[in-house]
Amino acid sequence: MPDEAPKNAPQSAADAAIVETDGFQLVIDALKLNGIDTIFGLPGIPITDLMRRLQAAGMRVVSFRHEQNAGYAASIAGYLTRKPGICLTVSAPGFLNGLASLAHATTNCFPMILISGSSEREIVDLQQGDYEEMDQLAIAKPVAKAAFRVLHAEDIGVGVARAIRAALSGRPGGVYLDLPAKLFPQTMEAAAGKASLIEVVDPAPRQIPAPEAVKRALDLMRSAKKPLIILGKGAAYAQADADVRALVERTGIPYLPMSMAKGLLPDTHAQCASAARSFVLPEADVVMLVGARLNWLLSHGKGKTWGGKGAKAWGGQKFVQVDISPQEADSNVRIDAPVVGDIGSCARALLAGIDASWPQPPAEWLGAIAERKDKNVAKMAETLAKNPSPMSFHSALNVVRDVVKANPDAILVNEGANALDFTRSIVDMYKPRKRIDVGTWGIMGIGMGYCVAAAVVTGQQVIAVEGDSAFGFSGMETETICRYDLPVCVVIMNNNGVYRGDEKNPTGGKDPSPLVFVKDARYEKLMEAFGGVGVHAKTPDELRRAMEEAVRTRRPTLINAVIDEAGGTESGRITSLNPAAKKKS
Question: In which band, very low, low, confident or very high, does the pLDDT at 312 lie, cut at 50, 70 and 90?
């Protein structure tokens, strides 16, 4: 056998010239190559050093107090920017904390990538009890649009590329990327590592609708006597604002914006039928859905909302559905004219078929809508003008309405039950993607994560209207807001409980009702504790002064707006979904 070289023999000049990289750096380089510049997450084993190195590489790393809130931040960042929002978590419990936001992103079609460190495969597969051992990939798959695991450094580029393309292509959604701890210290030659990275080309290509589908849709809309357009958050996400607006205005058709589509056209637009919603839905004969789904938010296209006689009856309307997913058609009722493609391409194709001969909707239909709008707007104005003590939701939100009108570029975050429903109907929006809320699931807990992300990725003032119950899910992130000195003004509608604060324990016992909180809680002290501004507001004037000062100074601010504890309604406007509430009615 030939003699072995001494272990301490000097390297050759060629060997000494080889530069290596590692898994940490390859993850960073892969993200930066694809335009990712912001990370939301929470440090810990095994991703602490990754977060340090991400920041050292010039990326903005926003560290939260709970992974679920970091995940919600990543999800809404994806919606606002049309780039995948990145949430970085530790293994097992941290991964599970981020899982709710991953499912939320998938359900709402927000592009997001949850990246979690994990235990080693050989230990997990034999269930040998590793630190925070969990088969995270298997758990993530049912709630994610796609899920991937990278085991070797040379595959990091492929893994990141696949995650980005999956998150953005077609109907966007949440993607899980599993990075075991053993991956990060792996090394390889730097030149080979650089060559292994992939810059994703055209991850969300245009999808042009079929000409025959466009003609079918236009023919149906042209024949309508009572046409209606419904704009969903898919239309807002598409950022095809000018084309969507032109489609509405050239056809002259009244439209309803779903909650996060408010502002695609100003809520004060003459064709907006929001103030006559309960009239136009059952009366319309042809409805065009643009980036909106006939899910529970639209009563599944059935029942009395749509003119049907029974709970499951279909009112017989004809539907045009513009959506990027062909599977969405016929999900609840028959879709007579599906138009499949991206919203911008579909809107432009439809506009090409609308010429000077296009008939405006019948005057009788427009007049009937205008009559009901005027009646309901006058009724709302009368309610908003009242000044009860303590404040009502309406008198408090009248202030928010004015502040948002004076600051149309501000982003409004909204969650709660009554706080959500009243805000949606009272506060007008004037620009697209300025209202972000609980979305398809109608969940609570998105508030402070959304606030952080909206402020970070847009730089705009953020105004959050929170129910006191909703705020409790993410309230500790006020520290995050203060730590990063973000221009966030949180208004808590404090009525001492869930829905309302006057419910009693039916047994007469010492324990409070499960729906009641500590009376007269001083939530504003939480913001003060971290160096922000806290205000205790009992009147509309106090609320107005505090909000205007917050917007002027752009300082982190929390306003504890004291609301009549008996002023709420159980489950807000979805009482019908609460069996207990049904029994009470």
Answer: confident
Q: Please check whether residue 324 is in contact with residue 263, taking contact to mean a CB–CB distance below 8 angstroms.
A: no
| CATH label of the domain that carries residue 250 | 3.40.50.1220
Close Cβ partners of 407 (under 8 Å, ≥ 6 residues apart)? 461, 463, 551
Average pLDDT, integer, range 293-319: 91
| 117 lies in the same domain as 167 | yes
Q: Looking at residue 5, what is its pLDDT?
A: 46
Phi, psi of 536 (to 5 degrees): -105, 105
Tally the domains of the chain.
3
Q: At 21, is the secondary structure helix, strand, or coil?
A: strand
Which domain does 220 fall in, by range? 211-370
CA 498 to chain centre: 23
Element at 562 (helix H, strand E)? strand 557-562
Q: Is the pLDDT of residue 2 over 50?
A: no
Say which amino acid occupies 123: I
Report the C-alpha gap between 315 and 304 in whole angstroms: 8
**Residue 2 within a domain:** no
In angstroms, rounded to a whole number, what is the distance separating the alpha carbons of residues 400 and 465?
A: 8
What 370-376 contacts at long range (C-beta under 8 Å, 24+ apart), as own/partner pairs, is: 372/275, 372/276, 372/279, 373/273, 373/275, 373/276, 376/275, 376/276
Q: What one-character DSSP code corresponds to residue 38?
A: E
Mean pLDDT of the chain: 94
Which residues are bridge partners to 257 per DSSP?
231
Question: In what helix (H) or strand (E) does residue 493 lie, and over which residues does it extend?
Answer: strand 488-494
Q: Give the domain CATH number at 144.
A: 3.40.50.970
Whole-number pLDDT of residue 1: 45
Q: Is residue 8 part of a domain?
A: no
Helix (H) or strand (E) segment spanning residue 437: strand 435-437
Asked if residue 218 and residue 156 are part of one domain, the reply reads no
Least-confidence region, from 169-178, 191-200, 473-482, 564-573: 564-573
Low-confidence winner among 106-110, 140-144, 232-236, 305-309 (lowest mean pLDDT): 305-309
**Domain limit, last residue, from 140, 170, 196:** 196
Q: Are residues 357 and 395 both part of a single domain?
A: no
User: Is 399 among the domain residues?
Assistant: yes
Of 149, 170, 196, which marks where a domain is finished? 196
Task: With respect to residue 379, please indicate whether it lies within any of the assigned structural domains.
Answer: no
DSSP annotation of 510: S
Here the tokens at position 579 are: 């069996």
User: Can you tell me the distance from the alpha carbon of 168 to that of 157, in angstroms, rounded to the nearest whole number?
Assistant: 17
d(C-alpha 432, C-alpha 436), whole Å: 10
Same domain flag for 280 and 168: no
Return the minimum-mean-pLDDT range out of 95-104, 209-218, 310-319, 376-385: 310-319
CA 255 to CA 258: how far, in whole Å? 10
pLDDT tens per residue across span 16-29: 567 999 999 999 99
Q: How far apart are CA 274 and CA 265, in angstroms?
A: 12
CA separation for the pair 305, 347 (Å, rounded): 27
User: Tell me: the pLDDT tens digits for 455-506?
Assistant: 999 999 999 999 999 999 999 999 999 999 999 999 999 999 999 999 999 9
How far apart are the C-alpha atoms of 330 and 307, rounded to whole Å? Answer: 18
